[in-house]
Amino acid sequence: MLDRLLMEAVVEAALREDAGTCDLTSEIVIPAQATARFIVNSRNDIVVAGIDAMIYAFRRRCADLRSELLAADGDSLARGSRIAIVEGRARDLLTAERTALNFIQHLSGIATLTATYVERIKGTKAALVDTRKTTPGLRALEKHAVSVGGARNHRLGLDDGIMIKDNHISVCGSIAAAVAVARAKVPLLTKIEVECDRVEQVEEALAAGADVIMLDNMALDDMRRAVALVAGKVPLEASGGVTLETIRAIAETGVDFISVSRITQSAPAVDIGLDAEIRG
User: Fold this and answer.
1) Strand, coil or helix: what is 39?
2) Is 185 a catalytic residue?
3) Residue tagged active-site, from 37, 82, 98, 225
4) Residue 3 falls in the annotated catalytic set
5) Does the pLDDT of residue 1 top 80, yes or no?
C-alpha cells in the first residue's frame, strides 16, 4: 500500500520546486475569481498509477477543489479514456497542473511497462519483482506503481532484508562465513539472500543455509543447472540485464523470481493531458 505520509511529503516538495514564490503567468493572465473545469485524459493505452499523488497536488493548491475520479490505480485504460475531472479556482489548478501531471505520467509509465513485462512471463512460475534502482526520493511511489502494474516489490530499503552481495562476500572471505555471521544476528523472521554469479557459488550458498539465492547475470544454461541443483529447496531469483526480449526465456528456466531494474529506472512517462471543458 502507498505510504500517504511519504507521498504527501514528496508532492509538497515538488509543488514548492515548481511554483517558487508564485505562478507568474497565472497570476497575471487569469482573473482572480475565474473558475475552471478540467478533464484528465489518457492519450496512450496505459495502466494508470499515481491518481492519489495527482489529486493531492491539485488539492494542496486549490482549497476548494472538486474532483471526480473516473479510474483507479491499476486500471487498464485505452487511449482517450477519462481519468478524472477537477474543478475549482482556475489560477490554483493551473499552478498545480505540471506537478500533478508529472506524477501521474511518470508513475503510470512504470505501471504500464511493468504490466508489459508481467504479460511476457504469463503461464510460467516466475514472478516479476523490482529493485532498489529507483529515482531518489520517489521509491515509495515508484514501488507502488510497480505493484499496481502486477509485479511484486523486493526490498523497500537496506533495512528490509539481508542481501549478501559480491562485495560483502569479498570482505567476509566466503559465502559460508557471511551467511554464518548474518544468521547469528539477523531478526528471526528476516530472510537471508545470497547473490551468486557461478553455479559453484549456488552450491555453497545452499549448503550455508541461504533462504533465497540470486542468480546474477548467469547464462540460461547455468540457470537451468542451478534450478536442477537447488531442486526447489529455496527460491531462486534471476537478475541482471533482463529485457522484454530475454525475460521469457529466463522464466522458462524454472526460476521463481525475476528482478528487473528497467521497470523503475527506464520506464518512459506516458502521455496524460489536462484539457479544459468549462471555463467561467
Assistant:
1) strand
2) no
3) 98
4) no
5) no
What CATH code is carried by the domain that includes residue 98? 3.90.1170.20
Same domain, 138 and 258: yes
pLDDT tens-place string over residues 9-57: 999 999 999 999 999 999 999 999 999 999 999 999 999 999 999 999 9
**C-alpha cell, 149:** 502494474
Q: Is there a contact between 262 and 135 (Cβ–Cβ < 8 Å)?
A: no
Give the active site residue among 52, 216, 237, 256.
216
Q: With left for phi above 0 and alpha for psi between -120 and 50, is residue 255 left, alpha or beta?
A: beta
Residues 275 and 254 in one domain: no
How crowded is residue 128: how many other Cβ atoms within 10 Å of its Cβ?
Answer: 24
Q: Give me the number of domains the chain comprises.
A: 2
End-to-end CA distance of the chain: 38
For 121-168, write each residue's pLDDT tens digit: 999 999 999 999 999 999 999 999 999 999 999 999 999 999 999 999
Domain span including residue 24: 4-111+268-279
Average pLDDT, the chain: 96
pLDDT at 280: 44
Parallel, antiparallel or unpaired: strands 35-42 and 272-279: antiparallel
96 and 148 inside one domain: no
Whether 198 is catalytic is no
Distance CA 164, CA 172 (A): 10
Q: Is 280 exposed, middle or buried (0-12, 13-18, 19+ CB in 10 A)?
A: exposed
